[in-house]
Amino acid sequence: MPPFDLPEGDPFGTHNLPYGVFSLPGSDPARRVGVRLGDHVLDVGKAAYALGSPYAPLLAQGSLNPLLAAGRTAWSDVRRALTAWVTVPAHQEAVADLFHPLSAVTLHLPFEVADYVDFYASENHARNVGQIFRPDAADSLTPNWKHLPIGYHGRSGTVVVSGTDVVRPSGQRKAPADPAPVFGPSVRLDIEAEVGFVVGVPSRMGEPVALGDFREHVFGLCLLNDWSARDIQAWEYVPLGPFLGKSFATSVSAWITPLDALDEARVAPPERTHPLLPYLDDSGSGTEPGGYDLRISVAINGHVVSEPPFSTMYWTAAQQLAHMTVNGASLRTGDLYGSGTVSGPTERERGSLLELTWNGRDPLELPDGKRTFLEDGDVVTLSAWAPGPGGVRVGLGEVTGRVVSSS
Ligand code: CA
């Protein structure tokens, strides 16, 4: 049965309509673009052809990339059409047979990831990390932190879809007291609860993208888990930053929520405490406010350990986009950038085990035992919702992954 009679307030109702890519079991393994409604997925390419949509060639694809590249007018037109298909009775009839239960499909990485960048935009996270690793420093923030959104280039080829197992990485580590580095599986495997932004429209090399053009380039967002091996990271990161401690896997949700589904969740970022250079200054009228009220939840083996609030992020996605292109670096369709670990001001709002256990000093009490860092077999799930129209929630697709032994 097509899911046209969803319970009132379903977070994946007709107000949401996130995009993904799925395949069916059996003889037809082709990947198709799908849109989620309740616990079903609509075969959007087939629906578009059934209803004579001019966008059918963009949608009857095995990846979201053609739609991503098509730009804002197409994004808005397609979303308007989709809304009609699932709400207007005559259209509902035409697409009713094109839904599949989520339980009967396989979800895939929904777009081809081009470049991957990860930021560090939560002031609470940055201060916690500063206090843990530089306890003697006068300021827990580095001198540049309030002047630019700090980021690094990650490894796009190891971005995986929710549900993919994560093999515990091996590498070098050396605690300060150790006489020499040792090699082996990480003993401090961690998560970072983040939001990922998906670029649709590319830009030309040499031409920075202005703050106000954020919505022309960015299609939507997803949840992102930046798996992190703290012991490998701690030994390797000076002076060039994260490398093998991060590059083994980054998980993203199977559903990309279009920015157009999140209009009611837009919020102003926290007050700026330092003046910003013009290309980052979002205080004036006509600039992109760029903050989003997303309520994230972090669960280990089904037990919620933290609820990081995305609205507390100091740097916005629009500022991050402006910063990563201000030197003339170009955008490509499928570029993905992570917000950085989302941590709120209280202990139960921290987005990493590093912070939740204060670098292992204060273990978490879980129903299945104590945790400092992740154990083999642990399943980490990030989920989130945002305020939607009329008080209804907009659900974000979860991102989950299980840690498996390296042997
Ligand atoms: Ca990160």
Overall CATH architecture of the largest domain? Alpha-Beta Complex
What is the domain total for the residues?
Answer: 2
Which stretches are low in confidence, meaning pLDDT under 50 for 5 or more residues running?
none
Distance between the termini: 44 Å
CATH superfamily membership of the largest domain, which one?
Fumarylacetoacetase-like, C-terminal domain
Helix content: 10-25%
Identify the CATH class of the largest domain.
Alpha Beta
Structural category: alpha+beta
List how many beta strands DSSP finds.
26
Query: What small-molecule ligands were found?
Result: calcium ion
Structural Rg = 21 Å
Number of helices: 10
% residues in beta strands = 25-35%
The average pLDDT is: 96
In short:
18% of the residues lie in helices and 27% in strands.
Q: How would you describe this structure to a colleague?
A:
This protein is an alpha+beta fold and 407 residues long. The protein folds into 2 domains: 19-108, Fumarylacetoacetase, N-terminal domain (SH3 type barrels, Roll), CATH 2.30.30.230; 116-404, Fumarylacetoacetase-like, C-terminal domain (Fumarylacetoacetate hydrolase, domain 2, Alpha-Beta Complex). 18% of the residues lie in helices and 27% in strands. It is built from 10 helices and 26 strands. It has helices at residues 44-50, 56-59, 65-70, 72-87, 89-95, 123-133, 214-217, 230-236, 317-325, 353-356; strands at 19-23, 32-37, 40-43, 99-101, 106-108, 116-119, 151-153, 159-161, 166-167, 170-173, 182-185, 189-190, 193-199, 218-225, 228-229, 250-252, 257-258, 266-267, 291-292, 295-300, 303-306, 336-338, 364-366, 369-371, 379-387, 393-404. The strands form 7 sheets. Strands 6, 7, 8, 13, 14, 16, 17 and 22 form an 8-stranded mixed beta sheet that branches. Strands 4-3-2-1-5 form a 5-stranded antiparallel beta sheet. Helix 4 (72-87) crosses helix 5. The longest helix has 16 residues, at 72-87. The protein is globular, with a radius of gyration of 21 Å. The mean pLDDT is 96. The structure holds calcium ion. The site of calcium ion has 7 residues, from loops. InterPro entries: Fumarylacetoacetase (IPR005959), Fumarylacetoacetase-like_C (IPR011234), Fumarylacetoacetase_C_sf (IPR036663), Fumarylacetoacetase_N (IPR015377), Fumarylacetoacetase_N_sf (IPR036462). Pathway: Amino-acid degradation; L-phenylalanine degradation; acetoacetate and fumarate from L-phenylalanine: step 6/6. Its cofactor is Ca(2+); Mg(2+).
